[in-house]
Amino acid sequence: MKVLLYSQKQGMLKKSGIGRAFYHQKKALESVGVEYTLDPNDTFDLVHINMASSGVIKKFKKKYPVIVHGHSTVQDFRRSFAFWRFIAPFFYKHLQNTYGIADLIITPTRYSKFLIESMYVVKSPVVALSNGIDLDAYQYDQVKVDQFYQRFNLKKEDKIVIGVGLLFERKGIHDFIEVARTMPDTTFIWFGTLPSYMTTHFIKKAIKRKPKNMIMAGYVEGDVMKGAFSAANCVFFPSYEETEGIVVLEALASKTPVVLRDIPVYYDWLFDKKHVLKGHNNYEFKNLIELIMSNDHQEMIENGYKIVKDRSLDKIGLGLKKAYEEVIKIKR
């Protein structure tokens, strides 16, 4: 069995969660010995599409079983790009077309599975399978931590809170900024970027008014980013909507305490005070971050790590292999 892992505009995806999920798929398949190609002109038995137009999917469907990865919903499109309100009806139609013609859909959580099954005309099976996490890549490494400290001129004794995500209003960066303003003795760092023409006026204004103790790091990858996850006292992720949140998996894999917004995607797998700390507003977020700074949360950290162990790439690879076998049977 050989699969074509396909995505249009791969260069644009590099800095997004979809891009990291695409990378994880390759690593997961390698871990279980499933052969794959990225070349549509190669030979293969089925197609696993991460991002494509309905026309491209229909073309593949003439010859091959097709899996469409359900990375997106209308819910997580809202409050993202500039002019999202005007684009949303067209985006909904795009999702309707692509999900509606798939032979099978893979989506990261039971929550996103529910949204896809309830909001779109879907005739195919929908499988909930995490995007997964490379556990080895997020093990504590002092060299990577030191690279992070040097990059941002920080010391071990500094209190550090990090957030990660594209500069979407949906990601809650404006709330991250306001919480930073109330904690002047703590360094807050947001990792992520977005072209200026795509960033909403509201977010541009919030960033322009950020406090002195907050750093806008832009897009950072590799060892420095992994060092940031390990060095931080807390990962603060105030996103309003997610289909999974790879950032959360990365934080848990780094054994760093997590404060996040209490939203539906986490209801059935991340529990408040057991795996993470959940808040509803900036007042609660500030109190939770201060709680992390002043208390030992080792039991919560270990519980969180157990969650990501169940989402390691070898286990995701087995899940993908099972889905591929299923879609071949469906097509036959």
UniProtKB/TrEMBL annotation:
The keyword Transferase applies. The keyword Hydrolase does not apply. GO terms for molecular function: glycosyltransferase activity. Residues 43-136 form the Glycosyltransferase subfamily 4-like N-terminal domain. It holds the Pfam family Glyco_transf_4. It comes from the Bacteria. Residues 150-306 form the Glycosyl transferase family domain. CDD domains: GT4_PimA-like. Keywords: Transferase. This is Glycosyltransferase LafB.
